[in-house]
Amino acid sequence: MMELFFLGTGTAIPDRLHSPAGLLVVAEGQPILLDIGPGTLNRLNLAGISTSALDHLFLTHFHPDHTLDLATLLQVFNYSPTAERTRPFSITACPGIQDFYRRLVELYPELAPLTYQLELHQVFRDEFSIGKIRIKTAPTGHTTNSIAYRLEDGEHSLVYSGDATAHGELVQLADKVDLLICECSFPSGWETEDHLNADTAGAIAQQAGVESLVLIHTYPPAQAVDLVAQVRKHYNKEVQLAVDGLHMKL
């Protein structure tokens, strides 16, 4: 079984129902956090998950709305009175993670690990495993190095797109997946080069033959329309618009 907690389903623009990016997936008893936008840790706490339970963070790219709470998390690991971290912590990310982390610690030297080992892993078109969970990555075209993640536990599969475009490799990565969690930044007809709209998100899901689709990363123009109805013009299976706090099981 995979359990999903949608911690942040929007963009950097403040919205009551759609906060910056964050998704927690619990598979084989292993919690994996995908992206860590501002406020993610508080929403993680509201979901009943402690930061001490985390061992793995996956980053899709380095924009602030997907990464800002990383600084807070590393601070928590070092400076939780009587509960400082001792287990290793792993960050898996797109190319550039070492430089991103170096610059972060240059800005905030106190974030460097004091009592634990921090492991940085760079991936792009890669496959690897965490226990029995199989993970595959592929570029999305949002930035030169942005990636999406596919997770499989032997029974179920999902893809988390991060930020994506129609020019990435999301169709191939999401082939026949049970659930595609896909950014849909704008409504149908909206011209965009570095994101998806209702037309392109629906087309990707249809081409990939996914069993169900959940829309995330919506800007206000997308929230002002019936986005699900627009996507259904291109995709003929189950689709829903995610809001913060959505809880799903596969």
> How are helices and strands ordered from N to C?
EEEHEHHEHEEEEEHEHEHHEE
Instruction: Return residue spans where pLDDT drops below 50 for at least 5 consecutive residues.
Output: none
CATH architecture: 4-Layer Sandwich
Q: pLDDT average, as an integer?
A: 97
Q: Look at the structure and name the CATH superfamily.
A: Ribonuclease Z/Hydroxyacylglutathione hydrolase-like
- CATH class division: Alpha Beta
Helicity range of the residues? 10-25%
Helix tally?
A: 8
**How many domains make up the 3D coordinates?**
1
Which sequence of strands runs across the widest sheet? 6-5-4-3-2-1-14
Give the DSSP E fraction (strand runs of 2 or more residues). Answer: 25-35%
Task: State the major sheet.
Answer: 7 strands, mixed
- Tell the overall outline: globular
Any idea of the CATH topology?
A: Metallo-beta-lactamase, Chain A
Structural class: alpha/beta
- Span between N and C termini? 6 Å
What is the tally of beta strands?
14
| Rg of Cα set | 17 Å
